[in-house]
Amino acid sequence: MADFGLAGDDLEQMYQEFILDASRDPHGKTSFAEDVSQENPADAGVVSASASAAQAHESCVVAQSHQFNPTCGDEVTVRLNLTDGTDGSEHRIESVVWDGHGCSISQASLSVMTDMVEGKTIDEFTEMSDAFHALMESRGKGVVDEAEDELLGDAMVFQGVSKYPMRIKCALLGWAAVKDSIAQALTRLPQNA
To answer: What totals of helices (H) and strands (E) does the chain contain, helices first?
Structure first.
């Protein structure tokens, strides 16, 4: 993310404002219906979270992961559609939605991550995830590789978060959920994909 010629405190303040804005208007956030008893005829038209997770687009596999950060109480369920690759193409993250609550860092990270990973292959996601983990391990120094800086784009605003070890898990929560969802989706793929 470009620093617009800002230095030190001004840049940090701009990053903090970006995080607060992203947490107030998070991309990809939805509300999953609670599981509903299939035996209740009055609920016949309601799609539960588990039932909708089992449904998939014709060429996609749907998987979801629930993650919880006991340190600060952040909680998220991420649901993604992964293309099944039956047409010979690489598996792609077709869509990501999530539901959860937590601090502004976790919510903003989920929002930024959602924008970054939709449409990406598993390899591209892994490269982004590794770069984001490296940023979180930098203790505020950022990434040294310009390619990683470019790859992370808006996620570079979380560089300041990496100074605070107790907040790093907040920023990584959504990334862990997507990684777990991908792993689950891959186990559900048709054998010939």
So the answer is: 6, 3
